[in-house]
Task: structure prediction
Amino acid sequence: MRSLSDRGVWLFFGCLAFFFVGNGVTALLMSGLWPNRAIVLALYPARIGMIGGQVAIHGVWFVFARLPWPWRILAGAASAILLFGAYLAPLLPDNTVPGDIDYLAATLLCLPLFLLAAQTPLWTMRIWFRWRITHRDDAASGRYEPMGIGALLLAMSAVASALAAARLSRSIDSPRGNGSIGVLVVGALVIVVVSAATVLPAVLAGLRARRLPLTLGLAFAADVGVVAVYLSLRVILGGGWVEWEVFVVVPVLVAGFFVTLTAPLLIARRLGYRLLWGRG
Result:
């Protein structure tokens, strides 16, 4: 019988394969092979939503995987480089100039902070409410394993490194090298709130709920609520109504995010994984 770690590793590779297939299909359709240009243009917001969904699934696996910390960090960093590098590589122009390289370097240095921000609600639920993902064939996986001192020290080091990288990114991107990190911190806090409002309901629906259609609908409604808040703030702060194209782009973006996030969770549910919390 496979151990839970083996199952987690294979599920991880399955998620990577799912992502690469989806990314490859959208890349082919956006490359001009599809004759209908309207559909091609609609794929751009869908692809952005797919990126968000992949970040969320990446965070779920990284937080709840029952693997030793060195392997967890190695696999998480490698998958992040593979997934997000595949998105950034096509954005590089044929003839790069120093300004383009500086902008790309600054963007990459911000990624650790934003990835940690997206994972913060999941870490909060794991540490404070003892969330854990278990398998039905492994009774030992139902027991809660608190984080040790070494893991906490490693987490503090990761946060400090992410903040240092973000600070360095502002120095690179600023013409005089005195950029403030405050904008990035505010952006990270926004990501924390959005992740809590969208990812946590999806994890509950996919791996815990009994009435699956109802809870999936509520999780999707949470995504729609986040978008409604964004559009309301844009109207209020912008001083006018948004363009009509936004009402086409936003639903496609939300659908891309929701499908990419929930599909791997439902597959994991089918394979016997469940979400537990509390003492075990």
Observations:
- Residues 4-276 form one domain.
- The longest strand covers residues 132-135.
- The chain has one domain: 4-276.
